[in-house]
Amino acid sequence: MDYVKKNEDILHRWEQEYIKRGHNVSFTPDGIMYRGKEYRDGANWVHLESGRENELWAKVPLRILFLTKDQNGGDDHSNWWDLRGDSYHHPDSDFEEYRLYKQYAFNTNIVNILYGLVKTIPNMMINFEDINVQEALKLADSYPYARINCKKETGGSDCKDEVLSKAIDDYRDFLQEQICNLDADIFVCCGNHNDNNIILNNLNEFYCGKFKWIDYATWYNEEENKLAIDLYHLSRPYYARKTMYEDAIIPYHNFIQKHPEFVKHR
Question: Which of 40, 57, 96, 141 has the fewest CB atoms found within 10 Å of its own CB?
Fold first, then answer.
């Protein structure tokens, strides 16, 4: 299965439809994160495509997909990039320092949560206080995970629920095809707002309602052995990093303790 090639085909067709409909704001590509050599793009540390992303994704024991809202392109929505190259290193550091760029909550939260999901097993949970930030950043550079923005049009600092819902509805078939193509094991659905998670709700529809609520933030598709985690937007203002981490990892740990079948074959 060539996940990368299929993803590129979906993005190409999606962008063509996007242009056909007269959108004049940048279309932002995403999918399996690039695992190639790092370089400076003039402002940030980013990764090049390695050419091995498909092989790595096919072999990784736990496929983790972060489903987020849209790309923050600034107040005028003009700043856009291929998010698959993101590295989360501080731009003013040497790459080998593995210094996390903590200015943005998104960076810290995605690095921490990815680390917690990968390292937590049924008989051991990684506590927030025990995270080695350098090791977590190294893992975020090397582990084959994926990110998909449900709204491909560049946005600003805030994406209202009605804007996100319209974007999903307008391009529903493309989004469903892109998400299902990657065949992830864990979906981190970063769209909860006032106890309603638009991203999770749509994901469940894409999988014909097979995700059933288990406990707190976990929804399980037992038939296909897939887990969805109900989480807030990773840049949610005034939300503590520890709280965000624990809202994802504690429910995940509870789940795999009760459902060892989720991890036993991996």
Answer: 96
Long-range contact pairs involving 212-218 (C-beta distance under 8 Å, separation at least 24): 214/255, 214/258, 214/259, 215/251, 215/254, 215/255, 216/251, 216/254, 217/247, 217/248, 217/251, 218/251, 218/252, 218/254, 218/255
Q: What is the pLDDT of residues 181-192, one digit of tens each?
A: 999 999 999 999
Question: What CA–CA distance (Å, rounded) separates 101 from 89?
Answer: 5
The model's pLDDT over 125-143, given as tens digits with 9 standing for 90+, comes to 999 999 999 999 999 999 9
pTM greater than the 0.70 cutoff: yes
As a whole number of angstroms, the longest Cα–Cα distance in the chain is: 53
